[in-house]
Amino acid sequence: MGDKYVRAIFPGSFDPITNGHLDVVKRAVRLFDELIIAVGRSPIKNQLFTPAERVEMIAELIDGMPTVSVESFEGLTVEYAARRKATVILRGLRSLTDVQYEFQLAMTNRAVAGIETVFIMTSEQYGFTSSTLIREIASLGGDLSNLIPAGVQRRLEGRFSQLRHQGK
Ligand code: ADP
């Protein structure tokens, strides 16, 4: 690494965080001086966990990673990056399908804010993991122990049993 301090943000929904996201975080630790996992508070997406719950789950997992922190943010990612004086947006890639969407997002963010996006490819074993699928499998009571951390699995079970109680 050069002599310039590099702070990166890793923005996403993380609803919930998966081993795929964590794999990207662990790889990124070696590249950046500081990494902020930024939980987006998107009003559009259907959310299972509140931003505060997502932050809490992530905080438990990064305990012991001194250069990594987590917080939530609202609004545009590029404006949040500027506020936090981050020069890099980190995104994970699973497949060529991701590339198409991420390419467009990265080009737009660079055009509007001059910020660079750095991509890290996840380990093959997590290439098919998505938070959406995790939520679906968990709602049907499936075993996800290979794809998500144990604490996340417990919270998913708790949330779905709560929803079943409410008849949802
Ligand atoms: P968003 O709603 O912004 O796509 P996600 O939480 O779904 O938020 O994803 C955040 C980032 O992590 C994105 O760059 C996404 O491509 C990446 N990502 C999601 N799942 C995985 C995975 N299994 N392996 C690697 N990267 C992933």
The helicity comes to 40-55%
* Anisotropy-based shape: globular
Order of helices and strands: EHEHEHEHEHH
Total strands: the figure is: 5
Task: Give the names of the bound compounds.
Answer: adenosine-5'-diphosphate
Describe this structure in words.
This protein is an alpha/beta fold and 168 residues long. It has a single domain, classed as Rossmann fold (3-Layer(aba) Sandwich). 42% of the residues lie in helices and 18% in strands. It has helices at 19-28, 51-61, 77-83, 96-113, 131-139, 150-165, and strands at 7-12, 34-40, 68-73, 88-93, 116-121. It has a 5-stranded parallel sheet with strand order 3-2-1-4-5, sandwiched between helices. The mean pLDDT is 94. Bound molecules: adenosine-5'-diphosphate. Adenosine-5'-diphosphate is lined by residues 12-14, 18, 20-21, 24, 91-92, 94, 98, 122, 126, 129-131.
Main features:
5 strands, five-stranded parallel β-sheet, binds adenosine-5'-diphosphate, 168 residues, alpha/beta, Rossmann fold
Annotate the secondary structure layout.
Layout (H helix, E strand, L loop, with lengths): L6 E6 L6 H10 L5 E7 L10 H11 L6 E6 L3 H7 L4 E6 L2 H18 L2 E6 L9 H9 L10 H16 L3
Bound molecules: adenosine-5'-diphosphate (ADP).
The site of adenosine-5'-diphosphate has 16 residues, from helix 1 and strand 4.
